[in-house]
Amino acid sequence: MSNPDITFIPDSDEDSISSDVAGFGGLLVSTQIPTHADGSLELGDITLQSECTLQALKSALEGAGSSMDRVLHLTIYLTDMADRAAFNEVYKRFFAKPWPVRAAVGVAALAVEGMKVEVTAMAAKG
Question: Where are the domains of the chain?
Fold first, then answer.
């Protein structure tokens, strides 16, 4: 797909069928799962998965010329809504007031068995 006003930054995983970040004008969109910098998947408890997921988001946004303080909207997908409080504790270490607009959505499952969290974010460029 070629469109001069839209930018796609590929995922570092060659087998991925999703871009890491997509941009249009001044807006970036990124979806992240609990992956470490080396690409390995974190399948530990919700705190570890949340930390990895938000760190992956931070890295992706910075790589695209943005930052966590430029996030406008975050959608959080959780396989167990009881994990929301633990996610929020990690969230508060990555974000500050004024808080991004956000939604937490309970889902039956995510792409990999044992994965508890995934996020999609919209952020302003640099």
Answer: 6-124
